[in-house]
């Protein structure tokens, strides 16, 4: 890791599900190493996929989705 050698603040880019065996660090570990921030490259994509898959399984099984009330939907969009 290079932050202690750098004269400028560095941001770490982390990628969950990487196929190279790179370790995943917690926010505390990243700060301890010396990085000022972390971009978790595909976290939002994997979370979206995970919960979309659960929602679609529920719709297929029950014909309805109960994970979000109808009243909550517009609040997310606006």
Describe this structure in words.
- The chain is mainly alpha-helical and about 80 residues long.
- It has one domain (about 5-45, about 50-75).
- The chain has three helices and two strands.
- The protein has helices spanning about 25-35, 45-60, 70-75; strands at about 10-15, 35-40.
- Strand 1 (about 10-15), helix 1 and strand 2 (about 35-40) form a beta-alpha-beta unit.
- It is elongated, with a radius of gyration of 19 Å.
What is the strand and helix layout of this fold?
Elements: E1 11-14, H1 27-33, E2 37-40, H2 43-62, H3 72-77
Parallel strand pairs: 1-2
Query: Mind describing the biggest β-sheet?
Result: 2 strands, parallel
Distance between the termini: 41 Å
Helix content: 40-55%
Overall 3D form: elongated
**Which structural category fits the helices and strands?**
mainly alpha
Mean pLDDT reading: 86
What series of H and E elements makes up the topology? EHEHH
Strand order of the largest sheet: 1-2
Query: How many structural units, i.e. domains?
Result: 1
Strand coverage percent: 5-15%
Q: Count every helix, treating DSSP H or I runs of 4 or more residues as helices.
A: 3
Low-pLDDT segments: none
Radius of gyration: 19 Å
Number of strands: 2
Short description:
Helix content is 42%, strand content 10%. It has helices at residues 27-33, 43-62, 72-77; strands spanning 11-14, 37-40. The chain has a two-stranded parallel ribbon with strand order 1-2.
């Amino acid at each position: 890791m290079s932050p202690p050698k750098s004269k400028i603040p560095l941001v770490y880019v982390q990628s969950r599900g990487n196929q190279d065996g790179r370790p995943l660090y917690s926010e505390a570990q990243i700060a301890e190493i010396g990085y000022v921030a972390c971009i978790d490259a595909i976290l939002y994509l994997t979370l979206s996929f995970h919960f979309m898959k659960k929602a679609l399984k529920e719709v297929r099984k029950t014909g309805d989705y109960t994970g979000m009330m109808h009243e909550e939907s517009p609040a997310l969009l606006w």
